[in-house]
Amino acid sequence: MNALADHIALQKFHTVQEIGATSFRLERGLHGWMRLQPRWQAMLLGGTQTDCVFRQPVWHGARLRHLCTDPDDLLFVCAERQGRLLAVLPLALSQRAVGRMTAIRELRTPVHAHQLLCDIALAPDQDIHRLWPQMRAWLQGPGARHLPPWDLLRIDGVPGVSALDQALCAQTGTHQHTQLLRHSAWLDCSGTVDQALERVSRSHHGNVRRLQRRAMSRGALRFEVVNDPAALPQALSHFLQVESSGWKGERGTAIAACEGLSGFYRTLAEQFGRHRSCRIHLLWLDDRVIAAQFVLLGARTMNLVKIAYLEEESDIAPGHLIMREAIEAACADPGIDRLSFVSSPSWAHLWKPLQEPVRQHLIFRDSLRGWLLHRLHEHRHQPVQAG
Which of 21, 240, 333, 369 has the most neighbouring CB atoms within 10 Å? Predict the structure, then answer.
């Protein structure tokens, strides 16, 4: 009886269907992630040594443990061939109201305020242009019988450099809508510092040097890169203290004010730190940290996941001072080619970064509800005719 119950419980979390030579499996929640994590990690290690951080299983494990109200709402669609894992697409289940329709059931990439980018994890030898149509057909078909009912597949936060974004753009059709959401700013750090900053205006260069002199007139200015796993907890405490020192602390929106968020960042620091893929940048003025950056490394990219500075020192712009140091550190590291701002903050334009498109892809299910939702979407977004 217990064996039968265990079998039924297992079926709740995953199901398999073969399409051609490729089979698809659904894993769900923390238990599904734990089953999947070793194979997921091994799949990524078959390519470059460090993959994009937003494709790493530890990122989604941290979210499951600390940010999910119901962990079973986070799903992992897996593609396999002859027992070998080929791809993992994380999706979150949600509902929302649209006009007078009953709640719209969405499957969406799990982006949020602390994860602005998302992507499919793909084995290095796989062609997404062949794999994605098969995965899309499985999501639409009867074989995914344990997949929660859905009307709209919302793929947000996929950067333009992603193979998935390129496959989605190539497969537009009557049941799909694609639009530009925003841009992700980045700097080319594959050369020297001067090459990385050659687009920056002389006035901004001069202003940063002036601010450095002003800061140094008040005390010893020092930039520290912390990547020793044993030292990361203390460095993270410095970062959280700076991040909560201004208006975020006053409004109760700082990371440290939320047990889930602080646990999320501690887990990221611990898990990525084991492979020295987490760094915390600290800018000291004498014995005080006046700016800090939470950094994750992957795919030859330094990702500035979160940035904080002391607002009381705003007259020396500590955020720009630490940015100048971070750019120099990225250019000096032979394992880094790009510095990513992840988003495109309003102040980033002063550094003249390159801009990478981040798109939203809406895929409406081939059903009556999906058709109605698509028609409603077209009506709301149709161009206004000139009168």
Answer: 240
What 3 state SS string does the chain have?
Answer: CHHHHHHHHHHHHCCEEEECCEEEEEEEHHHHHHHHHHHHHHHHHCCCCCCCHHHCHHHHHHHHHHCCCCHHHEEEEEEEECCEEEEEEEEEEEEECCCCCCCEEEEECCCECCECCCCCEECCCCCHHHHHHHHHHHHHCCCCCCCCCCCEEEEEEEECCCHHHHHHHHCCCCCEEEEEEEEEEEEECCCCHHHHCCCCCHHHHHHHHHHHHHHHCCCCEEEEEECCCCCHHHHHHHHHHHHCCCHHHHHCCCHHHCHHHHHHHHHHHHHHHCCCCEEEEEEEECCEEEEEEEEEEECCEEEEEEEEECHHHHHHCHHHHHHHHHHHHHHHCCCCCEEECCCCCHHHHHHCCEEEEEEEEEEECCCHHHHHHHHHHHHHHCCCCCC
Note whether 232 and 142 are same-domain residues.
no
Per-residue pLDDT of the chain (387 residues; tens, 9 = 90+): 343 333 333 344 445 555 558 999 999 999 999 999 999 999 998 654 457 899 999 999 999 999 999 999 999 999 999 999 999 999 999 887 766 656 889 999 999 888 899 999 999 999 999 999 999 999 988 777 778 889 999 999 999 989 999 999 988 666 899 999 999 999 999 999 999 999 999 999 999 999 999 999 999 999 999 999 999 999 999 999 999 998 888 888 999 999 999 999 999 999 999 999 999 999 999 999 999 999 999 999 999 999 999 999 999 999 999 999 999 999 999 999 999 999 989 999 999 999 999 999 999 998 888 888 888 887 776 654 443
Look at residue 1 and tell me if it is in a domain.
no
Do 322 and 370 sit in the same domain of this protein?
no
The answer to whether residue 342 is domain-embedded is no
- Tell me: do 176 and 130 sit in the same domain: yes
Task: Kindly state whether residues 229 and 124 are assigned to the same domain.
Answer: no
Provide the CATH number for the domain around residue 86.
Answer: 3.40.630
With respect to residue 213, please indicate whether it lies within any of the assigned structural domains. Answer: yes
Domain count along the chain: 2
